[in-house]
Design goal:
398 residues; mainly alpha; oxidoreductase activity; MPAB/Lcp_cat_dom; Lcp-like; oxidoreductase; EC 1.-.-.-
Length: 398
């Protein structure tokens, strides 16, 4: 493989400096107590050209030699029944499952459940955070989006993309979901292999892939940034929306996503233990990402207009109102500069809904018991997921 010498090429660019000096980057630094510097840049930068080779070998040995549906059924059997050293299976399959069936020394399932409780008890704020901060904010990083464009994610549509993200997130954030052979574990392994399948397909069919600038498709460093979105950025969003978070829940939340990242094949040294580490890691990664381009704007608008296309709500005025509320939350959660780059439309009274929500959350958190909030949050999130799955699994929906 060609040896690339990656530098923090955008560290003097306006978008990078403004984000970290006066935007959400500044808020994240204050929120986490991070100490920002480029001292560790070389320790992490080579991961821009590093990929999950174990996952790739499984895809070559199973998916590329059979029909996709047949290969998927075979992988499901391995996930649910396990693989042992003596099984007559390809060496790559053994390697993948012996890694993921072995729980690392640092794993604490009780702590993971504390993280899961935070995700559940934050109810619809969790879903707002994922959509209006984590997902849409991620579109501002132009190179990060290139695999989505290369695999023609826009043609698949935002409803389907959102449904898949929601399905994954809900299933890895329930009680005991990440124990070996359970539902969350299954989602993590399948997602890992989807990433490998997409990466190998891009390398085979997408001749214009610019490895030097964009990194390897779905590389380990980009994966780290994506999962910092699910941990640090998500936590910051809940905080901005007025949710109180205990120190134990915060530790549990990072522990949960560290283990999800481990199952997905992200190298352990890229998986932060806390918000301080996560912010410091994120700072280095953002220095190699340019701001939004035309693809970013298309992805952002596809997500914004998802509310209008989605038939979960029966009437047009309901869909338009939901889109309006998401726009309000996007402006509230993201930097103004990012919203302008993504061409998020301005709407009247745009801070009204999120500011009211923040006030209600503070009252709700102090008056309703934690157990009640966890139960209600789990129920409401499952209902949203079921609504999405009902629609996207209907073959007439495109």
């Amino acid at each position: 493989m060609k040896d690339y010498n990656l530098q923090p090429r955008f560290k003097d660019s306006a978008h990078f400096k403004n984000f970290w000096a006066k935007g959400n980057g500044k808020q994240l630094t204050y929120f986490s107590g991070a100490e920002l510097s480029f001292n560790d840049f070389e320790k992490f930068s080579h991961f821009f050209y590093h990929v999950d080779e174990i996952g790739d070998e499984v895809v070559k040995d199973i998916y590329f030699k059979k029909k996709y549906s047949e290969a998927s059924r075979e992988i499901e059997q391995y996930i649910r029944n396990g693989v042992s050293e003596n099984d007559d299976v390809p060496e790559s399959v053994k390697k993948l499952f012996l890694q993921t069936q072995t729980t690392p020394d640092w794993l604490d399932y009780d702590l993971i459940n504390k993280g899961a409780e935070l995700c559940m008890r934050s109810n619809l704020d969790s879903l707002i955070s994922l959509r209006d901060y984590c997902l849409i904010g991620g579109y501002d990083y132009a190179y990060l989006n290139k695999p989505l464009i290369a695999t023609e994610a826009l043609k698949k549509g935002a409803v389907k993309r959102l449904s898949e993200t929601l399905d994954f997130w809900v299933n890895v954030t329930r009680y005991d979901a990440l124990e070996v052979h359970k539902k969350g574990y299954e989602f993590a392994i399948k997602t890992r292999l989807i990433h490998s399948y997409a990466r190998l397909s891009i390398k085979k069919h997408y001749k214009n892939w610019d490895t030097e600038n964009w990194g390897e498709p779905i590389n380990s460093w980009d994966m780290m940034a994506t999962y910092i979105g699910f941990s640090l950025v998500f936590l910051h969003s809940l905080h901005k929306l007025g949710n109180t978070i205990s120190a134990e829940e915060e530790r549990g939340h990072f522990h949960l996503w560290k283990y999800v990242g481990y199952l997905l094949g992200i190298p352990e040294e890229l998986l932060p233990n806390n918000k301080k580490q996560a912010t410091e890691y994120f700072y280095l990664w953002t220095s190699v990402q340019p701001p939004s381009d035309k693809d970013s704007v298309l992805l952002a608008h596809s997500l914004l207009n998802e509310s209008l296309e989605n038939p979960i709500l029966k009437f047009k005025f309901q869909r338009k109102n939901l889109r309006y509320l998401h726009i309000c939350c996007t402006w509230f959660l993201l930097d103004d500069e990012v919203c302008k780059r993504l061409q998020i439309p301005k709407v009247p009274f745009q801070s009204g809904f999120p500011v009211t929500k923040r006030m209600i959350n503070k009252i709700y958190d102090s008056t309703v018991s934690r157990e009640t909030r966890i139960k209600k949050g789990n129920k409401d999130q499952m209902k949203v997921l079921q609504d999405y799955l009902k629609i996207t699994q209907n073959s007439n929906f495109h």
